[in-house]
Amino acid sequence: MLYLQLFLSFFKIGLFGFGGGLAILSLIQMEVEKYGWMSQQEFVDIVAVSQVTPGPIGINCATYVGYTATGSVWGSLLTTFAIVLPSLIIMLSICKAYFWLGKRFKGNPYFEQTLRMLRFTVLGLIASAALMLIKPVNFIDSVSWVIFGAVCFFTVLPQIHKNKVTEFLSHPILLIVLAGAAGFLIYR
Amino acid sequence: MFFQLFWTYLKIGTFTLGGGYAMLPLIQREVVDRQGWIDEEEFLNMIALAQAAPGLIAVNSAIFIGWRIGGWRGVCGAVLGAVLPSFLIILAIAMVFSDWKELPAVEAAFKGIRPAVVALIAAPLVKMAKSALKIKNSKLKIQNYLPLLVSLAAALLIWLGGVNPVWVILITIVCSICSCFFRSSR
Q: What does the domain layout of chain B look like in residue ranges?
């Protein structure tokens, strides 16, 4: 039963995960919270791990949840397969249509309008993922807000003033390592 | 072809940090520049399709290129190569993470990392909003920012309304198809 539920949840995440990476987070969060497969803290921790390890965040979350929810490698294999399966079905259909019909998608008003609107919905999905994580378990005191503000600042900085230094400082891995070092020194 | 695609995507999957978008330049270098499997224009089409289709961008691109070059076997090779490194790494981490988390040093570090992760989810929105709005020179016309109301509505529905994101996506698709239909029938 657990395996079936995991399969269905991650199939759903793969099927509705438009916009890739960060946009898929709110879907995963909703599903894992509904069934209690992962606490909110664990979810944030695994997103952090995803940022510093190779590979797509969706696969990382699926593998992690599959293992922790079932306690076996089979669970991981199942969830990872489930998140990839909708892509396989849809992308292969698109590929076949694309190679047979030519570039008929581009310029189709329905297709273009839907894509344009989805881009804005995806922005909202990402914002909601962040908003849902602003909770006392993740923000334990005022230092947390200082770290939050600093990371926001360094990430947005290349948008305001673009050069090699700001580009380097905005790197997510560097920022996570620095935040970890700060946490180690402050909360030890 | 299976092994060649598997090997190429395994390399890309192992050496890209930060998910799908970070993979794209590496895929371009391997597939377009080095192997010459597809040309620049087709690569750009591939990105558009991989982003338009649901699912992970890295996996979608692996499916497209795998299919284009090696048919079914190509798809299997490329997808396995793209997924395997992160699968193995995360599996290894999942097996030991619950023990590591008990260590006070690790817990202290994660107390610092958690707010940083929330910032790393939220802050890229600025760049993404800019590219979605296609703002080139800083024209401050209010109607240019109106589509952001859609984003705001989506965020509030999920955050405060507790609506499943699946519904928000379905509503968006239905609304855009309807608006297109009415516009063309007028």
A: 2-100, 137-185
